[in-house]
User: What shape does this take?
Amino acid sequence: MKRLRRAGRPKVVACVALLAAFSWGAAVRVALADHYHTNCVGHGLVHGDSLTDGSYFSRVEAGCGSPYRRCDIYSGGAFVGSATVSGTTATCNLWSRNYPNTVECMSAARVYSQGVFADHYHNAHNWCL
Amino acid sequence: MAALRFLGIAAAVLAATLAGVAAASALTGTASQSEPPPAAEQFVPRDGTTRVTPGAADPDGGPRWGVRTYTSREGQSCVEVGRVTPGGRYGRLEANGEVAELPSAPSGVCGDLDVDPVILAINTRAARGGLPARTVLYGQAAPDVEAMTAGAPGRAAAPVALTGERTFVVVAEGIHEASEFPVDVRTRDGEVTRYRW
Assistant: This one.
């Protein structure tokens, strides 16, 4: 009985280790996503003229057959607001100045484009949270 | 023997880590090459094209909601929603009831009204700083749009009033899903386009 337990334990440990490694790889990849990039359509957080002036945009371009797209702003970990845009040509573009009291380096764009990419976050380039 | 086993385990962990990276990249699109955002010309207002049109009243009163429109330097039609003072100033409502004016900026939702019959957007604002949460349907219709209807939370579809600039605003209290705002647009040729987010 004791032998069986000893034989099974390393397999369980190995499975846990592999699962942890998979999760860690996925988490790190998402955390290190660029603040703006193109995956069929451009999307992410766009800083204005400065990284510290509080003026920035959550943005998802139109294209690639997407019927609608969404761009949200989070600041300090809290939801601030969102834009959802329908149609084939309109870009989702949400300006931080529409909302009072957001801190640029603590802000993230949460973006989604139906049929193109899944819901995910892009942190500010100068992320400080 | 022990060294071989260790190498095997290390290789398996590395493979699992890379698989996690690949899975996350596939879901979020982060496998693509990082590129700078598009030139702001696509969103920058062309001089002399900005218009502010008051629209719906807010359920709590105060300055009306309204739409600011402009044509971008690339010729796209752009719309954004905010509060409008009786004097026609456009901006953001502050907790003290005043409107903080927002300067002209590359801040609109921009599209092509020669392709789409409407530029249609929904904006939500979380409750912050003493201001209540709101969900606002807004946009601009092409010249050949004859009629529009829109549903709203707790309300059946109703005709949408178009302003002289062919803009529209529908305001709802709280934060709502876009699916709660079904929109139908009928053009002069009789075609009806249904937007079911």
In short: The helical segments of chain A are 2-31. Residues 2-31 of chain A form the longest helix (30 residues). DSSP finds one helix and eight strands in chain A.
